[in-house]
Amino acid sequence: MLGGSAVHFALAASFFTEVRVVGSVGDDFGSEPLELLASRGIATEDIEVVPGGETFSWSGHYEHDMNVAHTDDTRLNVFAEFTPKLSASSQEAQTLFLGNIQPDLQRDVRRQSSASFAALDSMNLWIETARDSLLTAISEVDCLLLNDAELRMLTREPNLVKAARTAIDLGPEIIVAKRGEYGAALFTEEVAFAIPGLPLENVSDPTGAGDSFAGGFLGYLDGVRIGDRPDQGALRRAMAYGSVMASFNVEDFGTERVRDLSEDEIAERLAAFKRLTHFDEVPVPTTG
Amino acid sequence: MLGGSAVHFALAASFFTEVRVVGSVGDDFGSEPLELLASRGIATEDIEVVPGGETFSWSGHYEHDMNVAHTDDTRLNVFAEFTPKLSASSQEAQTLFLGNIQPDLQRDVRRQSSASFAALDSMNLWIETARDSLLTAISEVDCLLLNDAELRMLTREPNLVKAARTAIDLGPEIIVAKRGEYGAALFTEEVAFAIPGLPLENVSDPTGAGDSFAGGFLGYLDGVRIGDRPDQGALRRAMAYGSVMASFNVEDFGTERVRDLSEDEIAERLAAFKRLTHFDEVPVPTTG
Fold first, then answer.
1. Which residue of B has its CA nearest to A153?
2. At a CB cut-off of 8 Å and minimum separation 6, what does B95 contact?
3. Staple partner for A12: which of A101, A113, A245, B51, CB 3.0–4.6 Å?
4. What is the per-residue pLDDT across B226-265, written as a single tens digit (0 to 9) for each?
């Protein structure tokens, strides 16, 4: 079914700002997914359709508690020969998200973009097989998003706070550790911020949750025109929106839930999220 | 070194309320630990010293990221023959915490206690080897605290929200899922509440973190004399205090950090905890 980093990200971000997708598909992709993206106002002109090519595909399965994903099959197909080409409009976008792909391709896109704020996602595969290239790609962005286990693997540091600090030393000012059902944590030089996952009764398919998170997070930051240096308050709200979009993503298979969301549903869930985490601060009772 | 559920719990709870410990040790225990407990105002008269007996001991190791504990050795020693006897003062305590031990012993203590609010912790060992007895013990308390993996195992339900609901059907009105470095979640029939773990740079020893959490949680509820039915606000603050006490616990080996805490340190960390999780709610920006 329809999926992929770019699709999940774009759909989530489209609720907050204008989105342009850069990518490559085969002519097996069909017009329906492009129409779906366009129906959410997403510009698809930089999605290259390779004649006779087959679209990238991934299949996998999840363990019992859905916290661990296993890849059964990955077919690069058209991605094996992918050379990203950004149109003038895409080059001028203020915010850039480099979805999980071979890090040299991410660097190529970064070079073509004049974005004042760039974020990058990656995965264990590239940490293991293209480490040097990935480290360079990371040094060229402002924000790094990774699963917490991947952040530990990248930095070779088991403690998450130290891992985040090591990652900041690589270049980005903002590190986001995604934690699946446990939420996410954000680190800058000055602050740490953490949110739990929204407890969900219906978890059908975690695939794409990280990209939906990134879409809500960066879409919000871009939508409010935060500029090059998002302040703390904006980062915190962006994290909450990221979690909200990820929570919708997992409630149905593929893109089914997010594509038909309403802004009211997003606002309601943000309010639920705030209720979930809110507590009053009171003095410690003394035992005398 | 000194440890154990009762010790970690009692030390943490002693910052919020009066605590009485019921337990059994060998005469190898020595007077120093008893003096330590007494120095925190903890009543130790119900700690039975078995002449010629050896104190329960546990040894284990943690995986690289400290999220997974492995037991190397457990010696029941005096616990093998333990018959808890509560003094009149302990019987009259308003709040009862049944630390992790064989569930028939927990039931025995519950029967001797007139507490209006009782909570129980357990572990995978009893879920596997004494399931029926544990289910009965759980049905006799108001609050169940378990690791989230154990809660899933107990209820045979991989989804945490459904697991919590199933656990509520067993009897307790309040279910607390402890999640290690990821914080904790609380469920009642009406509400869910979740907090992330405080990101800590120094994690020396997670042993006892769950009991320190329980000590902060129940100690706070008892200290503010919440009565039989803690309201939502109290439960939320209690969760925050539980997390704060657990965060101190892991920063040093054994009981070293918690025993010498000041109330100012607790208040400071609660404030840090609130800053960590706080975000402002704002309307979703519309894309027009």
1. B65
2. B17, B115, B116, B117, B118, B119, B218, B221, B222
3. A245
4. 666 788 889 999 999 999 999 999 999 889 899 999 999 9
Strand partners, B23: B47
Q: Phi/psi of residue B107, each to 5°?
A: -65, -40
Burial profile B206-228: b = 16 or more Cβ within 10 angstroms, e = fewer: bbbbbbbbbbbbbbbbbbbebee
Cβ contacts of A127 within 8 Å, gap of 6 or more: A134, A150, A153, A154
Contact A196 B203 (CB under 8 A): no
Give residue-wise pLDDT tens across range B29-58.
Answer: 999 999 999 999 999 999 999 999 999 999
- Give residue B43's identity as a one-letter amino acid code: A
The ipTM value here is: 0.86
Output the pLDDT for position A288.
Answer: 40
Q: Per the structure block, which two tokens stand in for A79?
A: 């991605």
B48/B278 Cα distance (integer angstroms):
45
**What DSSP element (H or E) covers A95?**
strand A95-98
Q: Is A249 helix (H, G, I), strand (E, B) or coil?
A: helix
Q: Identify the residue among A243, A284, A286 best suited for mutation to test binding to B, counting B beta carbons within 10 A and taking the highest.
A: A284
- Token pair 């999980």 is found at A100
Q: CA of A119: how far to CAs of A122, A184, B101, in Å?
A: 10, 16, 49
Best A279, A281, A282, A286 residue to mutate vs chain B (most B CBs within 10 Å): A279
Please give the single-letter amino acid code of residue B101.
I
Q: Are A184 and A195 in contact (CB under 8 A)?
A: yes
Element (H, E) at A153: helix A148-155
Calculate the alpha carbon distances from A245 to A182, A204, A209, B127, B286 in Å: 15, 15, 8, 36, 15
* Cβ within 8 Å, pair A284-B267: yes
For the record, the structure tokens of A239 come out as 């994290």
Reported as type and span, the H/E element at residue B178 is: strand B174-178
For residue range B208-218, what is the model confidence (pLDDT) as tens digits?
A: 999 999 999 99
In angstroms, the CA B280 to CA A110 distance is 32
Are B277 and A195 inside 8 Å of each other by CB? yes
Test B183 with A182 for CB contact under 8 angstroms.
yes
pLDDT digits (tens, 9 = 90+) for B153-186: 999 999 999 999 999 999 999 999 999 999 999 9
The whole-angstrom separation of Cα A212 and Cα A147 is 13
Candidates B161, B200, B240; nearest CB to A200: B161
Q: Sort strands B20-26 and B43-50 into parallel, antiparallel or unpaired.
A: parallel
Across the interface, which of B14, B164, B280 has its CB nearest the CB of A237? B280
Residue B106: other Cβ atoms inside 10 A: 27
Residue B187 CA: distances (Å) to CA of A125, A277, B96, B124, B168: 37, 13, 20, 20, 9
Closest CA to A258 of A248, A266, A268: A248
Residue B58 CA to residue B74 CA, distance in Å, equals: 4
Predicted pLDDT at A284: 53
Nearest CA in chain B to A187: B199
When scoring B68, B193, B279 by the number of chain A Cβ atoms within 10 A, the one with the most, hence best to mutate, is: B279
